[in-house]
Design brief:
heterodimer, A: about 500 residues, alpha+beta, 2 domains, about 5% strand, B: about 90 residues, about 85% helix
Chain lengths: ~500, ~90
């Protein structure tokens, strides 16, 4: 590019960065905030189901599932067991009859991963809802939600690249963080959080687009395949079917079949299995692997449930499909150990802060340039209020989601849906409040309220369960203790922000 | 906002998207005609399309004039379109 080093290039990129940053900025903030929680979605789910034991997954659970299915689901056509990736998660067991059959051969159960005990857990969507929200949103048709998320991600990609160009002295900027200097501080904060995890931001944006690959870029499929389904048929070929012979024969125990599958995968962990025609001489066990290793995922595997020999192994995927799979794994971070997951989490927090500070910077910068900064025009006031509602609102909502998990009656119908309603009711109430209050006060009040909600979470937890902070620390239960500490840390951060804003107000 | 700014924004967003989509189709068709596996070609080209979009979009916003931006957009779309037509599946 001829003018690549002229000031014109940086100026045009700066304008581009500002505009593609603001318009999808609120959506990006939500994607980053909720996506960041997803790195600990198993721990969040664990905390939201305090009835479970904290033990690691043991083969006892699979043996218990085997016994339960033999006892209760003898007449079923298919048995399914899904195993959790980490300890403290439910083992899900379900069975169903042949197609067109009534509900007499259907059922499901949740088992404790350590003991295999059939446990009754409270109805909640746990951390999974927060994870799903970051790309499916809520109450929006899925295709619309994902398309919006993809457009925001594409804008993010352009914003990052143009942002890099805009900051000529990118590393000098990184070491400059001046507090209490108004606009300059917001810009410093924006630059520092952006540069701190720049490779992460680029990676997470691009791999996110790869995960929703054909959502907004379906044209190569349209041009080369009759339908999207035809493409999927080639990518995920149907496994051969093994019809029932009608002669009963005892099957191998599920634990032994799982060991065979692991051996066939060179040690890959079982994520779930389906037994078709249980108890028949033609019974099969279909396995899929846990995605806990970085690399090409282990192929789907079908074993004979009678003698355990491999009947079918899904064909290996080509280079491009493998590249897409590895990109998705990098995005999800499911392969990461605890230390790496914390790194993912901290990078996610930095991304959330980068978008948040960028949004605030937009209004701070424009306020200074207004003809009468004391009385801004309607458009500016709207952006300012929406900033508060979209930055603090969802954070308060997540705290309310956790509180609702502890406070809603256990036998409430649609309890899981009520927890989600509490998140959005709190968020909506906060939006309403900010529209009524002067902007400077609204920031302080919204932040203070959120700080209070987060501080209440460990307190309510201690009062309603046996997993209070002191008990968790004594028991060495780091998931529960860590969760409570994270709530307190979030509360302290929000309270600090509210206090700084309040004292600054007094000074001016 | 001036008409020129609107035109520039249109070129940098929908224009860049259109060129990217057309290039994605053209390259996937060429690869398949050269013997590539259709799933691999479609997946690989689409994975690369987001980088292409970012490059095209930034170039358009940086172009010396809006007219030049549109000219290059159309000049690049033409061979892509011709390739798509020439290699259309019978």
């Amino acid at each position: 590019m001829p003018g690549a080093k002229s000031p014109g290039f940086r100026q045009s990129m700066a304008a581009l960065h500002t505009w593609v940053g603001l318009l999808p900025g609120w959506l990006l903030f939500l994607i980053f905030l909720f996506g960041t929680t997803a790195y600990f979605q198993q721990e969040i789910s664990r905390w939201m189901r305090p009835e479970m034991s904290s033990g690691a997954l043991s083969m006892k659970a699979l043996a218990a599932a085997d016994t339960l299915l033999h006892d209760r689901a003898g007449g079923a056509q298919a048995w399914t067991v899904s195993l959790p990736a980490r300890g403290g998660q439910v083992v899900r067991v379900s069975w169903e009859g042949a197609e067109g059959e009534g509900p007499e051969n259907e059922g499901k159960a949740t088992l404790d991963p350590a003991t295999g005990r059939d446990v009754k857990v409270r109805d909640t969507q746990g951390g999974n809802f927060l994870y799903r929200f970051h790309y499916d949103l809520y109450a929006v048709p899925r295709l619309w939600a994902r398309s919006l998320v993809c457009v925001a991600a594409l804008a993010m990609l352009v914003a990052i690249l143009s942002g890099v160009v805009t900051h000529k002295k990118i590393f000098a900027d990184f070491f400059t963080l001046r507090f209490g200097k108004g606009q300059r501080s917001w810009l410093d904060g924006h630059n520092a959080t952006a540069v701190l995890a720049l490779p992460f931001h680029l990676m997470i944006t691009y791999t996110g687009l790869a995960a929703l690959l054909f959502t907004i870029m379906p044209w190569a499929i349209s041009a080369n395949f009759p339908t999207r389904a035809a493409y999927n048929d080639v990518v995920y070929p149907d496994a051969p079917e093994y019809p029932a012979a009608g002669r009963p024969k005892p099957m191998l125990p599920l634990t032994l079949l799982a060991q065979r599958a692991q051996a066939a995968w060179d040690g890959g962990h079982v994520g779930g299995l389906t037994i078709t025609h249980p108890g028949d001489v033609q019974a099969t066990a279909s396995f899929y692997a846990q995605r806990d290793r970085l690399g090409i995922p282990a192929p789907r595997l079908i074993l004979s449930a009678i003698d355990g020999h491999v009947l079918y192994r899904a064909p290996a995927e080509g280079g491009a499909r493998a590249a897409q799979d590895v990109m998705i794994l990098l995005h999800l971070g499911t392969f990461a150990d605890t230390a790496l997951r914390w790194l993912y989490f901290v990078s996610g927090v930095s991304g959330t802060a980068m978008v948040g500070t960028g949004l605030v910077l937009w209004t701070v910068k424009r306020r200074a340039r207004l003809p009468d900064p004391a009385r801004p025009h309607f458009g500016f006031r709207l952006v300012e209020r929406l900033n508060i509602a979209m930055i603090v609102g969802p954070m308060a909502g997540i705290a309310a989601y956790f509180l609702a998990n502890r406070l809603l009656p256990l036998d409430l119908a649609e309890r899981g849906a009520w927890e989600i309603d509490c998140l959005f009711l709190t968020w909506g109430a906060l939006l309403f409040w900010t529209l009524l209050r002067p902007a400077a006060r609204a920031w302080i009040e919204a932040l203070a309220l959120s700080a209070l909600l987060y501080a209440l979470v460990p307190l309510v937890n201690a009062l309603t369960t046996t997993h209070g902070l002191a008990a968790s620390l004594l028991a060495g239960d780091w998931v529960f203790a860590g969760f409570d500490f994270m709530m307190l840390a979030t509360s302290a951060t929000l309270a600090f922000a509210a206090r700084r804003l309040a004292t600054r107000k007094v000074r001016s | 906002m001036t008409l020129r700014t609107c035109s520039r924004i249109l070129a940098g967003t929908l224009g860049a998207y259109g060129l990217t989509a057309l290039a994605t189709v053209a390259v996937s068709r060429v690869l398949i005609r050269l013997g590539a596996d259709p799933v691999e070609a479609v997946t690989g080209v689409t994975l690369a399309s987001f980088a292409l979009f970012a490059g095209v979009s930034m170039t358009i916003f940086h172009a010396r004039s809006t007219a030049r931006a549109w000219f290059w957009l159309l000049a690049l779309a033409l061979p892509c379109g011709l390739a798509v037509l020439a290699l259309s599946a019978e």
